[in-house]
# Entry
Amino acid sequence: MAAAVPRVGVGVLVVNKAHSAVVVGRRRSSVGDSKYALPGGHLEFGETWEECAAREVLEETGLIIHNVQFAGVTNTVMLKERRPCHYVTIFMQGELLDPTQEPENLESDKCHGWEWVEWPSIPEPVFEPLQTFLKSGYKLKNAAMSVSFQVFFGWILDKELTAENWLFDCVRYGISRLRVHVFGFSLALGVIQMKEALEI
# Structure
């Protein structure tokens, strides 16, 4: 019999500033069994979405995340499951605190294992709430891009600022997307010219 009331779940897009993949795993559950899903779980009483996201990721994968932000929400009624249910799923995005850390399967009774998968190319079959979220076209907030701009604006008062240095740090910080290079290179040249004009 279907649950009498909807339940609130939290799904977490765990991102690494070194690439554009997220952590996914195949579920072991009476709901969505063997389907690919994100780390996550139920929102506990008195808990914020950010707290729930960080807690669930740590419990399930051992990963420590920060900069947790809201990504979206879905409303999913799953009547064809062995245990029919209704879930409101809050999706959050969190950045890996240590970029070298790898996920561990700490709850093997709930998941077959975790892996990095390029977003949004999640393998089939996909757990229904995540499937609905994918249709929204959500784009990851690229942590690597944020790092590059922090470095760039740190250069503004640096007399050694050059376009070559900009490209060097793009490579050093693992930023490979063409639009980042083009925009950043143009921005760098503009600031170089401004500095020369002001003689700073």
